[in-house]
Design brief:
By secondary structure, the protein is of the alpha/beta class. Helix content is 42%, strand content 33%. It has one domain (2-119): Transcription Regulator spoIIAA (2-Layer Sandwich). It is globular and about 35 Å long.
Length: 122
């Protein structure tokens, strides 16, 4: 399940992942939130939090994740990933070389720092 987090500027899409993420989660939560933010901003930011209860991503969701990232390739300003899950940190590091925006990975203990960085002016 993807939970949309509230209380962020409208150029920030902030989500928290629980359990297994499916394509339906992307189609009903993440993609509409990204499209809404892109409708009024040239560049947007993403806060992606995956806690210990995160079980993974099914194949359909993985494809949607790739599509969302690539369709709006040049419009990502910053991405903050909050996780203690090792494979997510590794995948984020590998994927970061393909995105023009800044990407930072934060351990769960530093979630407040991630939230501050994602909302700070450039």
């Amino acid at each position: 399940m993807i939970e949309l987090l509230r209380g962020f500027p409208d150029n920030v899409v902030a989500i928290k992942c629980h359990g297994e993420i499916t394509r339906k989660d992307y189609d009903t939560v993440l993609v509409p939130a990204v499209e809404h933010a892109l409708a009024s901003h040239d560049k947007i930011r993403l806060l992606y939090e995956a806690g210990p209860e995160f079980d993974g991503v099914d194949a359909g969701a993985a494809w949607e994740d790739f599509k969302v990232g690539m369709e709006h390739f040049s419009r990502w300003d910053r991405v903050a990933v909050i996780t203690d899950v090792a494979w997510i940190s590794l995948a984020t590091r590998l994927f970061s070389i393909f995105l023009p925006g800044a990407i930072r990975i934060y351990p769960t203990a530093d979630a407040a720092k991630a939230r501050l960085w994602i909302t700070q002016a450039a």
